[in-house]
Amino acid sequence: MPKFPPNFLWGVSTASYQIEGAVQEDGRGPSIWDTFSHTPGRTHEGDTGDVACDHYHRWAQDADLIADLGVGAYRFSIAWPRVQPAGTGPINDKGLDFYDRLVDGLLVRGIAPVPTLYHWDLPQPLEDAGGWLSRDTAERFAEYAAAVGDRLGDRVRRWITLNEPVVHMAEGYAFGTHAPGRALLLDALPVAHHQLLGHGWAVRALRERGATEVMITNNCTPVWPASDSADDQVAAAVYDGFHNRLFLDPVLRGEYPPFAAALTDTGVVRDGDLDVIATPMDALGINYYHPTRVAAAPDDSPLPFVTTDIADVPRTAFGWPVVPDGLRELLTGLHEHYADVLPPIYITENGCSTSDSIDADGRIRDTDRIDYLDGHLRALHEAVSAGVDIRGYFVWSLLDNFEWAEGYSQRFGLVHVDYANQQRTAKDSYDWLRAVLAGQR
Ligand code: FCB
User: In the chain, what is the straight-line distance between the N-terminal and C-terminal CA atoms, in Å?
Assistant: First the structure.
């Protein structure tokens, strides 16, 4: 593996609802993912995050696994319903105590904590009041951010406000495949604005509490037109607009792309909002999994595009295409397109699900994951060499975990979890990555 710059930050990522379990402990309130996963037919085989990886009780063992891997950072998320069970009103100190213990436990092991404030587990009472369709949720989010900052800001330097607002809007509110399960199609657009507004206020709240590095994490994808036809080119541009630019232009340039007039013309965006959203960030988090091929939609389609297959490349167990060079393409493309307004970048998620099995000797030979990570790290290095300012890379994920609507059917971990007894077993990819990181020192 080629050498990355000195001080490059290596890490692993997880998210609260996907690993913590303990959903009724120490005063945690219900989240939209509790409700959704307990609704019949919503998740694979009715799987829920009730127990997940039981990380709430086993965090110390998991922190040891992170330390032994040799990474310098751990990106986890804080469950809003633990900290503020109703999403408004009283703060639950016991919920904050958990993250307090975790942060201290990471620091004594020499691991920098990188908390994400919101990875999709909205307190259910806020959803009942309109969820992210309501501007009020953005205000509540800012208050919650301040409460967490008050408690952890003396030890946490780097913060992530939101995880993948585009996926939360699309899957949660436009298509209904994730919590809260609303299928509003284009009427879900205000969800983008309210999340971004909450992000901007949270950046300010965290800065006031001593944060030195604050970022948003966006899911970004290079968009490939399915053909040279004018219709497919237009459809690809529209998809790029919804997926990438809708969430980058406002935070980096303080403006919405022209197609988002539905937001600006309907009063959803108020005077001053874009200044809040464009509050300068110190870095930008990018999650990359695969490129997206897009074609024009048939006339009767409710959306102006359809995604089509990327053929002739390997696929992950999830069926996602494996295109390592898409990461280089994405990063050099952002570097060119956003030029002087692009802050330093962290890759805050990248990884794949594989169909792992435990061999008779106890080993998990996840060679597909090794190939995936190896290819993506090389592509990332090419982007660094091309002059893109990239400061770190986090693997998704430390542990096999609750993969949202796919439940426990998709295994993304460097560490295997046996859900019957919660045993953790490092996979071959874990040992491979540890060796790669040793070579970087
Ligand atoms: C991302 C999510 C993360 C995980 C990976 C596979 O979109 O942020 O929680 O589910 O996909």
Answer: 12
- Whether the CB-CB separation of 164 and 79 falls below 8 Å is answered with no
**pLDDT of 11 higher than 90:** yes
Which residues does the annotation mark as catalytic?
Answer: 164, 349
Rounded CA-CA distance 220/165 in Å is 11
The 3-state DSSP class for residue 64 equals helix
Nearest CA to ligand 1 atom 4: 403
* Arithmetic mean of pLDDT, 116-144: 98
Q: Which residues contact 436 (CB under 8 A, 6 or more apart)?
A: 1, 377
Which residue matches tokens 């080119």? 233
* Domains of the chain, earliest start first: 9-440 (3.20.20.80)
Nearest residue to 146 via CA among 206, 79, 212, 80 = 206
Q: How many Å apart are CA 198 and CA 175, to the nearest integer?
A: 22
> Cα 82 from chain centroid?
19
To test the pocket of ligand 1, the residue of 77, 164, 347 to mutate (highest count of ligand atoms within 8 Å of its CB) is 164
Residue-wise DSSP of 315-345 = B-TT--B--THHHHHHHHHHHHHHGGG---E
DSSP state of 126: H
pLDDT > 90: what percent of the chain?
97
Q: What is the pLDDT of residue 261?
A: 81
Q: Are 117 and 162 in contact (CB under 8 A)?
A: yes
What is the pTM assigned to this prediction? 0.98
Q: E strand or H helix at 152, and its extent?
A: helix 135-152
d(CA 306, CA 288) in angstroms, rounded, equals: 20
Q: Which helix (H) or strand (E) holds 296?
A: strand 292-296
Is ligand 1 within 6 A of the CB of residue 219? yes
231 CA from centroid of ligand 1 (Å):
31
Mutation test residue for ligand 1: of 396, 402, 406, 408, the one with most atoms within 8 Å of CB: 396
